[in-house]
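Notes from the pairing session

We agreed to fold both candidates in a single pass and log them together. This is the raw record for the first candidate, unedited. Please don't reformat it; downstream parsing expects exactly this layout.

Candidate A
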Amino acid sequence: MSMIEVTRDVKNPLLSRREITCTFKGLAGKLKRLEAVEMISKQFNLEGKIVITINLKNDTGRPLLSGTFYVYDDEKLAREHLKAAVFKRLEKAKAALAKEVEAAPAEAKPAEEKKEETK
C-alpha cells in the first residue's frame, strides 16, 4: 500500500504542463516540500523534468497532507508561467537542505572518534 494517493492527474495542454494533486497518508507536519517533490518524481518516473510544489496543506484533525504539483518539461516555460517568488523559495529550500547535509557528516565524525578513543 502506497503512502501517496493520487486524487487528480491532469495534462494541461494550454499551459504545457501536468498538474498532479495527491494525498500523503500519515505525513502531515513531517514532510518538506523538496521531500514531497522527490517522492512524486519517483512515483511517476519524472526524472529530468521540472517538478514544482504549488501547495501543501494539512487536513484538520487527520494525519493527511494534500499537495498540488506542476510538472514542466522546460524550466524556461515554468519561469514564464509562475511567479519569481516560487523559484526563490525553491532555491532557498535547496540551500537549506545542502547545509543540513554538510552539517550531518560533521556531527557524526566526533561520535565515531569518541568510540575509537574508548577502545
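Candidate B (folded immediately after A)
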Amino acid sequence: MTVRARAPLRLGLAGGGTDVAPYCDLHGGYVMNAAIDRHAYAIVEDGDGDTVEFQTLDHGGHARFRRGEVTTADPGLQLLTGAYARICRDFLGGEQPSLRVRSYSDAPPGSGLGSSSTMVVALVAALAEHFSLPLGEYELAHLAYEIERGDLALAGGKQDQYAAAFGGFNFMEFHRDDRVIVNPLRIKDWVLAELEASVVLYFTGVSRESARIIDEQSRNAASGNQASVDAMHALKEEAVQMKEALLKGDLAGFARTLQAGWEAKKRMANSITNPMIDAVEALARANGAVATKVSGAGGGGFMMFVCDPCDRVRLSRALAAEGGRLLEFHFNPTGAVAWRAP
C-alpha cells in the first residue's frame, strides 16, 4: 500500500512571534496567516518486513534501520524519524513496523514559509492514513507541534502546524496550557484576487536558522526585556487589525498593517534583520513596494512585498536582478490531505 500526503506552506501576515512561548503563555498570542499553493509532501509505503527506511528526496538524506532500532539522531532525517517514532509510541504500542517513508518540499528549509513544521504535518497525515488513525485538524496540528518542539527539541512557535492542518486564511489565538483556537475567515473573492495581484514573494537565497532567532526572542520575553515585549504586544494588536482589513477588503489597511508589523518585529530580536535584508527592502521601495515583511522568524528566507499591481513588473524585474528568486503563488483554501494511491 502507498499513501501520499501534502500540507500547504503559509504566509505569516501579522502577529508572528506571539505564538512562541513564553510570550503566548504569559500574555496570549494572536496570529493572522494564509496558506498558499506550495506544499510539503510525504509518501509512506509498506517495507520489506525487516527494515524501516527514510529518505528526503530533495536533499539526498537516506537511512535504513532494523525494526525496533529507529533513532532520531540524524538531523537531516529527524522530521521523518521523529514523526514515525511518535506515531509508533502513541498508537502502535511502541512496535516499529516495516515502512518506507519519503518526503520532499516546494520550499527549502529556513525559507520562512513554515516548511519544517508543514513537513511534520504532512508526515503525520500520511502515517495516520496508513494506520487508519482518526485525527482531526486540531489533533493533527497539536501532535505535529509536540513532535517538533517536544520530541525533537526544535525551537519555534505554534502557528505553522495549524496553518498546514487547516489551510485557508486563519486568525489564530494561542493561550496558556497549549490551548489554541483557529478562526477561519471568509475572504471575498475579489479581495483574494487583488492580494494575489499585489503581493510579490522573493526568496533571498539565504535560508536562515529560525531556531537561533527564536531562541533570542524567547530569552527577551522570559527576561522581561521591555522593548521586545512591547514589540510583541504591538504585533498581537496588528493581527487584529489585519483580520479586520482582510474582512473589509481594506487593501490600504492591509499594507499599512503589514509594514507596521515588520517594524515591530525588528524590535523583538537583533538578528531578525541584517544589511542584506535592509538593502533589498530599500531597492523594493525604490521600485514601487509600499510595504515589506520578511516571512517567518527573519534573518533571510522569503521577503513579501505589497505594490500597486501596475508596479508589479517593475518591482519583479528589480528584485530578480538582485540574484534571488521570485515565487508565483495563489492562496490555498485546503489544509493537509492524505490519500491512498492506486
